[in-house]
Each structure stands twice: as structure tokens, then as C-alpha cells.
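Task 17 of the worksheet. Students: predict the tertiary structure of the chain below and write it out as C-alpha cells. Keep your answer in the requested format; marks are given for formatting as well as content.
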Amino acid sequence: MAEHLLELNNLTTGFHTERGDAIAVQGVSFHVDAGEIIALVGESGCGKSVTSQSIMRLYDEKRTAWYEGEVLFEGRNLLALPEKEMRQIRGGQIAMVFQDSLSSLNPVFTCGDQIMESIRIHQHLPKNEARKNAVEMLRLVGIPDPEERFSQYPHELSGGMRQRVMIACALSCHPKLLIADEPTTALDVTIQAQIMELIVKLNKELNMGVILITHDLSVVAETCSRVAVMYLGQVVEEADVAALYSHPCHPYTKGLLKSIPRVSGGRREELYIIEGTVPLLSQIPKGCRFCPRCPYAIPACSEQSPELIAMPSGHKVRCLRAAELQEEV
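Model answer:
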């Protein structure tokens, strides 16, 4: 079987705190192939962003964070690489689009300078060549008058334009893997659709692997081939999009899908709400982490911590009752 572009094996990320270590991500495993878009979904606080930033090792490993497991990128374990080699991979082979473009872009540098910086660091081009490539990247992401926008500062652009500049920065060195962390946050629905259309277009044209982190399950259905559902630092279900939407196995996945607003026969149905909230990392329950909020919980769920197991249907599920719950439509 061909090697995956990216493969996570039991990735665990912890942070040193005054009250001891807090484990934000535990035992996360999934893979991404070239030309594939995979989604990470779940409520806020479930570990999606920590997982993505751990792939790129963005945390301070000397003072703040520690990692376990493997992050294999084209067969190389990124967690074992020296920092000098990791810097060449960040931005060059793996790029990331962050949630908030206004805080992610440097306000004292022009948009063009910020795109050029990545090009000059990773491709070692002279300034005039880097400028030409940066303008071309602005044109590629659909920004009108790219020569003029090149010299503008982030605050002079709209939210949608800034997000396109972020994508241009990320794609400037033609990465093999793009991590898009809620790239349409705080944008209006028209701009959201344009940004997602752009990511899908570039994914196909560049044969680039994409990890899409989002709360919008309708976007996942339209753009992704597979989806991994996270809850409290763990992957609780992974499957092809069609299989997961038609026959979800995990109670948390069922709850997420039921919470999508629907209109039936011209009348709006009452919005389903998953009871409770995601607990703090210092309050992780014993046994199944979703047990206190789960309508299907049995006494064993509060004692046994389920493993992520493969189902005959192709799903991977972390639930003691997965087989019987899959039969429910």
C-alpha cells in the first residue's frame, strides 16, 4: 500500500501548568493522503486546533509543551526532527491558515512583504523574483488588482481579502499539506463560500492534502472525503463522509448531526441540543469521556475507557455500544 502523506499515530500533547501537566490531546490517530481533504470536527475545546498545531510543533517545547507518539510526514517522524529541519518544513512543505487573519497577519508589514518573506526563506529567491511570485499568488487566490494590494497593510483590506492573503501566504511555497483551521470564521456566508471554493480548487490543481478544521457540518459534506470527530482530546469516530452521515456510530456524532438546523414541510423543527458542556482538562471523567453527556450511557461506560476500534462498516469508533447504535438510522 502506498505511503500516506501524513500519518498520526497515538499523538499526545500535554502542557506544563502550575497544577501539573494538562493533556489536551491523547492518542489521536488518523492519516491524510495527497489530494485528499479530511475534516476535523467537534465542539470548541475538543482539541482540534491543538492537534493541528502539534503537527507543525508550534508550541514552546522547552517550557510549555511536550509530545508523544508519531507524526509521520512522507515517512519522517516530525516529532523527532531537530528544530532547524522543522523550520524548513513549516511553511515550505506544511502550511497553515489560522482562524483570525487580522491577528495572524503582522500589522506593520504590507501584505506583499509577508508573502515574500516565506518565499525568500524557503525558496531562496532574489527580491525581484520573490515579489513577482507574491503578486502571482495574490492573483491565484482571486484578489483583484494584486499589484495594488501587494503594497497595502492588513487593516486596509476586508475580512475576506485578509483571509485570501493568509491563504496566499500559506500556498506561496506550494506546500504538500495545508491545514485550514476554521478559515471562514467571522466571515459572511458569501465570502465563506468563496473561500471554501478556493481551497477545494487549489486542492485539486496542486494535488495538495488538506486538513479542514470546522464547525460547519454542511461544509464537510460538500468538500471532504473523510471526517474525524474529536471530543475532549480524542478521536471518537472516523469514517468516509457519506457513511458517517448516513449511519453515525458514536452518540456524540449522532448529537452533532441532529443539531444541524432543518426545515421540514415548510416548518422549522426544534433545534436539538447536546446536554452539558465540554469539561475542563482538569475535570476529565473516568471511563468514557462523553459518558456524563451521553443519552445512551450504561453503567459500564462510567468505568471502562473504550478504545478506538474498527467496525465492519469501515468506521472507527470509540464507544462500548457502537455496534448496536450503528443500526439506528
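Marker's comment: The chain has a mean pLDDT of 91. The longest strand covers residues 20-32.
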